[in-house]
Design a protein that fits this description.
By secondary structure, the protein is an alpha/beta fold. The chain folds into 2 domains: 90 residues, Urease, subunit C, domain 1 (Roll); 293 residues, Metal-dependent hydrolases (TIM Barrel). The chain has 10 helices and 16 strands. Strands 1, 2, 3, 4, 5, 14, 15 and 16 form an 8-stranded mixed sheet that branches. Strands 6-7-8-9-10-11-12-13 form an 8-stranded mixed sheet. It is globular.
C-alpha cells in the first residue's frame, strides 16, 4: 500500500517532508520520500500529517485492568519486598479495553512494568498495543528491571511491620540483592571454567538479574524526589548498571546535574493530582527544563494514573508550558524507542522499520487522529 500527499514527520535524518509518500508491505516500510510515488495501490491523504506511532515508556497497561479492583490488579506482588523474578508479561490481559483506547489515540507501543510497591518489582516488557495473545505482541522481554525508591516501598511495608520502612532500608535491600546476584554470576562463571567446581544452587531472583548485571537491559528506577534520584544514580554507579529515571518529578531542580550524568528520564505523569508529598514539586515545566538542559526525554502517562489515550495531551500540555513542539514529538516517538532499546524497529519512519504510523488531521500532538497502523495493518480509524 502507498499513502501519498502527506506531511511526514519522520523523526529521522530525513526530518520533515512537506509533501511526500510512504509505501509499506508485510508490516515494514519499504519506501518513503518526497513527491509522487510510482505504481502500486495509492491512497491520496489530502495533506494529512503522518507521524510514527506514539510510545509510552512506562505504563501498567493491561496489568492494572480498567474498571476492575483487586481481581484485575496484578501490578504489585507485595507479599515480599524483593521480587525481580516477577514478569509483567504474566499479568497482562490484552482484552482490557484500554488497549483499544490507546490505539485510537495513536499509541502503538507501550512498556508495561510492575508497580512501585517493592524496591525491586520485576521485569518490564514492551508490547505493541494490538493482539489477542500477549506472546505475539512482544517487542522486547525482558526490556528492563523495575526498581522503586521513596514513599511507595516505605508506605507499603510500614503497615506490614517489615523492611523497608526507611529510604535507608530500601537502598540496602537493593544493594544486598544486587551483590548476591553478582556473586551468583561469578560462581556460575567459575564453575563453567572448572570441572571440579559445582555450580551454585539455582536462584530465580539472581537469575532474573543476570541480564541487568551484564548490561543487556537497563535498570528503570522509580524516583520522584531529587534525593531519591541521586540514590538511583549512586546504586547504578556502584553496580555498573545502565540507568533510566522514571517519573523524575524533581528533575527540574537538578537538571544541570542530570545533564552532566547523561541519564535519560521518562517524565510524568503530570496530568494528575499531587496525591502524595513527593509530588509537591510537580510541574508541566519539568519537561522543558530537562530538555533545554540536554537530558534525553520521554513522556509517560504512568497508565492508569493518567489514561494512556491522553499521552498526546500530556505532550501538548508540556508544549503549552514551553517545551519545543518538535522535542515533544521526539519524547513520544524516537526518544522512548531509544530508551527501550528498540530504535531500530520503532520510533521513526524510514525504510526497513515497522510500519507503525499515525495519520493525523492537524498538529501531531493536538490534531484529530484519522487512522492508526501497526505493522502496516489498519487497527483504528479509516482511510477515505
Amino acid at each position: 500500500m502507498i499513502l501519498k500527499n502527506l506531511r511526514i514527520m519522520t523523526m529521522d535524518k530525513a526530518g520533515i517532508i512537506g509533501r511526500g509518500f510512504v509505501e509499506f508491505e508485510n508490516g515494514k516500510i519499504i519506501a518513503l520520500g518526497e513527491g509522487e510515488p510510482s505504481g502500486g495501490e495509492q491512497i491520496d491523504c489530502g495533506g494529512l500529517t503522518l507521524a510514527p506511532g506514539f510510545i509510552d515508556a512506562h505504563t501498567h497497561l493491561g496489568i492494572a485492568e480498567d474498571s476492575i479492583d483487586f481481581e484485575g490488579d496484578d501490578t504489585n506482588e507485595d507479599s515480599e519486598p524483593i521480587t525481580p523474578q516477577m514478569r509483567a508479561l504474566d499479568g497482562i490481559n490484552p482484552f482490557d479495553r484500554c488497549f483499544s483506547e490507546a490505539r485510537a489515540a495513536g499509541v502503538t507501543a507501550a512498556a508495561v512494568a510492575p508497580g512501585s510497591a517493592n524496591p525491586i518489582g520485576g521485569q518490564i516488557c514492551v508490547l505493541k498495543t494490538v493482539g489477542k495473545r500477549v506472546d505475539s505482541m512482544i517487542l522486547r522481554e525482558p526490556a528492563a528491571i523495575k526498581f522503586a525508591l521513596g514513599e511507595n516501598p516505605k508506605s507499603t511495608y510500614h503497615s506490614k511491620n517489615l523492611a523497608p520502612v526507611t529510604r535507608m532500608a530500601t537502598a540496602a535491600l537493593i544493594r544486598e540483592t544486587l551483590y548476591k546476584a553478582r556473586r551468583y554470576a561469578e560462581d556460575l562463571e567459575a564453575a563453567a571454567g572448572d570441572d571440579e567446581l559445582d555450580p551454585p544452587e539455582y536462584d530465580i531472583k539472581s537469575e532474573s538479574l543476570l541480564p541487568l548485571l551484564r548490561r543487556e537491559i537497563p535498570a528503570h528506577f522509580h524516583a520522584h524526589r531529587a534525593d531519591d534520584i541521586f540514590t538511583a544514580v549512586r546504586i547504578a554507579k556502584e553496580f555498573d548498571l545502565d540507568l533510566v529515571l522514571i517519573h523524575c518529578t524533581e528533575g527540574h531542580l537538578i537538571a544541570d546535574e542530570l545533564s552532566e550524568l547523561r541519564v535519560p528520564a521518562v517524565v510524568g505523569p503530570n496530568l494528575c493530582d499531587r496525591c502524595k508529598p513527593e509530588l509537591r514539586e510537580q510541574t508541566f515545566e519539568n519537561p522543558r527544563i530537562l530538555s533545554e538542559a540536554g537530558v534525553e526525554l520521554a513522556l509517560t502517562t504512568d497508565h492508569p494514573v493518567t489514561p494512556l489515550q491522553y499521552l498526546p495531551l500530556c505532550a501538548e500540555m508540556a508544549v503549552r508550558n514551553g517545551l519545543d513542539e518538535y522535542e515533544a514529538l521526539r519524547a513520544l516517538t524516537i526518544n522512548p524507542a531509544r530508551i527501550l532499546g528498540l530504535s531500530e524497529r520503532i520510533g521513526s519512519l524510514r525504510p526497513g522499520k515497522d510500519a507503525d504510523m499515525v495519520l493525523i488531521d492537524g498538529s501531531p500532538l493536538s490534531g484529530r487522529v484519522r487512522a492508526v497502523f501497526i505493522d502496516g495493518r489498519l487497527v483504528s480509524g479509516e482511510l477515505r
